[in-house]
Design brief:
heterodimer, A: mainly alpha, two-stranded antiparallel sheet, B: alpha/beta, Rossmann fold, four-stranded antiparallel sheet, 10 strands, 32% helix, 22% strand, globular, disordered N terminus, disordered C terminus
């Protein structure tokens, strides 16, 4: 019987035998090279406003995808976490509001900002993990609303309605990071780091366990996992990504105010994740790119057909409706179904690999 | 591997190598659902290494008993001691970390993950590595033990397959692999043979009888062939109470049991 046999080393899976760069599909290389040489073709506006903004919103949305897609927890507080990190950089570091800003060097201000964001994310997480589904959304939305009103009314720390302006990235290595090309590479770098870290963690014990908690929390407890502790740790990690995105967002517009992390932007982050798809980490970046394109160019489209340019939200809303209607799992879901369709045998009307 | 050690297959051999505390000791355990007493005043003692079958009709309270022991439900009253330690107030994961495992009547697996990932998760659950942000290396001990368990339950061929694509029998085998992970001291099997083919049942019996000597278990099973072949003692339950305990042969010959479950004519072996 098998129990008394010694364990012959099971055959190693083919994918593990190949060198790491052989395992990366060609499409990854193409996207990677295209993104790296983008500044050679794209205008400054496109680099800074379209790509830079897409990467940043993609990161914040990625933190939601990590919680929602892997952990089954839809958190609307991610934009507030990002906003808080932005505020902290302004408060600990430099801004035009010299009465409040402490003017500490970047290597203290940025880590501190991220720590504060993570503590905030962890606290909200520890409240939210006691609930499920719609109640998680409600609790996190309530915290996001409270954050918005608190920052708008508090003048001592958050400088109220006007917030902080003149929040600039440090001139590290003598580079002005707010120039379009450096800013493009700065945001691309951090977006890529967060993307690959999330991808990596999804197959590490922590990420696997998080997916287990999503699928069946009761079973996870029966395997020895502390379900709530795992969920809270996921919130803390997601806050780190959102916080990094928040700092970049603050640098992009050189200012942070309550409106940056209002209820509208909080919901936009969810919209981005849903448009892109929450099943894989690339989804939020695709969603963010489409969102930014719509937000940037919808006005021109509307004006060209004789409608008022202020109605650009209408286009975003219609696009969102169409995607949710035709593909509840976002563009990634559409893509997966198309791939499946392509593999179908036209005669047997089923997938070839199931033949 | 020590896991594969089958020495000491008789109960006396096994009991001689284990400590004095009972593996499981339930005193006055009750579970009320509103006015319904799913369990009423259960006293149950299982010695270390003992293999016990719990039999009874549907609704007798067998699965509720398991749920109370593992912490899926808190018992309404009573004490539960696991190797001498009172665990009734512990959450499920604390009991699991002390070496208690279970399988579920309806497979509770992670259908979106592969077979190996499921077992690996089960192995990580009781280790400090469960919070690790680092992927397992090729020589990772937990991954090696997960691979071994996949091998033990004969799922090598499908180890990288998504669980949702497995047959029912394979899912039941995977359930057992997950219960065997992380050096358990005591396992609760909830109808492991339900829905299996005769060949799969035979395989299951071999897996259960081949478990290491110190590893006791309780098995809930409607298939008497399976239950009586793997168990050394039997507890009969009826309406949330224990009404008979004894050796399989005694239970099989008991007139009361026959009257209650078998209409007094057939032997339990045909049940």
């Amino acid at each position: 019987m098998a129990l008394v046999e010694t364990n012959p080393r099971p055959k190693v899976h083919d994918a593990r035998q190949r060198v790491w760069f052989e395992r990366i599909p060609a499409s990854y290389w193409i996207v990677c090279i295209a993104l790296l040489i983008m500044p050679a073709f794209a205008s400054e506006f496109t680099l800074y406003q379209v790509f830079g903004w897409s990467f940043i919103l993609g990161m914040i949305s990625l933190s939601l995808m990590f919680l929602g897609g892997y952990g089954g927890m839809v958190s609307l507080v991610q934009m507030s976490v990002a906003g808080l990190a932005g505020y902290m950089v302004a408060i600990f570091g430099d801004s035009a509001i010299t009465d409040i800003s402490l003017g500490w060097p970047w290597y203290i201000a940025i880590p501190l900002a991220l720590i504060v964001a993570m503590v905030f994310g962890t606290i909200v997480g520890s409240l939210a993990v006691r609930t499920e589904g719609i109640y998680t959304i409600m609790i996190t939305l309530a915290v996001a609303a409270a954050f918005f009103y608190f920052t708008r009314q508090n003048y001592v720390v958050f400088n109220g309605f006007s917030g902080f302006n003149g929040v600039l990235p440090p001139n590290l290595f003598g580079v002005d990071w707010r120039q379009s090309i450096p800013f493009y590479y700065l945001t691309l770098f951090w977006a890529a780091v967060s993307y690959f870290v999330v991808l990596y963690i999804s197959r590490a014990p922590f990420g696997l366990a998080l997916q287990g908690v999503r699928d069946n929390p009761r079973r996870m407890a029966a395997l020895g996992y502390s379900v709530n502790a795992h969920r809270i740790a996921a919130y803390a990690f997601a806050a780190l990504i959102a916080g990094t995105g928040g700092i970049l967002l603050t640098w992009q517009s050189a200012q942070i105010s309550p409106g940056t992390a209002g209820i509208g932007p909080a919901i936009d982050i969810l919209v981005i994740a849903v448009i892109g798809g929450m099943s894989r980490p690339i989804g939020p970046f695709i969603g963010a790119f489409i969102y930014v394109l719509l937000k940037t160019f919808a006005i021109d489209i509307l004006l060209s057909v004789g409608l008022s340019g202020e109605r650009f939200q209408l286009l975003i809303g219609l696009g969102f409706l169409a995607i949710v209607f035709f593909s509840p799992d976002g563009l990634l879901g559409l893509w997966d179904r198309w791939q499946e369709y392509r593999k179908r045998d036209p005669l047997l009307d089923r997938s070839e690999d199931r033949l | 591997m020590t896991f594969l050690d089958t020495s000491g297959t008789s109960v006396s051999d096994r009991l001689s190598v284990t400590g004095t505390a009972n593996a499981l000791e339930l005193r006055g355990v009750s579970k009320l659902f509103g006015a319904l007493a799913a369990l009423a005043d259960i006293d149950l003692i299982v010695k270390p290494g003992e293999r016990r079958a719990v039999l009874g009709s549907n609704g007798a309270g067998k699965t509720t008993l398991f749920n109370c022991i593992t912490g899926d439900f808190a018992p309404s009253t009573g004490s539960i001691r696991f190797f001498g330690e009172e665990v009734a107030a512990f959450p499920a994961q604390e009991r699991i970390r002390r070496g208690l495992r279970r399988t579920y009547q309806i497979s509770l697996l992670f259908t979106g993950l592969s077979v190996l990932d499921n077992v690996y998760l089960a192995c990580c659950g009781v280790s400090r590595g469960r919070f690790s942000f680092l992927r397992p290396r090729r020589d990772d001990a937990l991954m090696a033990s997960a691979e071994n368990l996949v091998h033990v339950v004969h799922l090598d061929e499908v180890r990288d397959t998504r669980v949702s694509e497995l047959s029912y029998g394979q899912q039941r085998q995977l359930e057992i692999a997950m219960a065997l992970s992380g050096a358990p001291r005591f396992i609760l099997f909830d109808e492991p043979a339900a829905g299996l083919s005769p060949a799969e049942r035979q395989e299951l019996i071999e897996i259960l009888t081949g478990l290491p000597g110190h590893m006791g278990f309780i098995i809930i099973e409607h298939d008497m062939d399976v239950a009586l072949r793997v168990a050394e003692s039997v507890t009969m339950m009826h309406n949330g109470r224990i009404f008979k305990e004894g050796k399989p042969a005694e239970i099989e010959d008991d007139e009361e049991v026959q009257a209650l479950y078998l209409g007094g004519e057939e032997g339990l072996g045909h049940g």
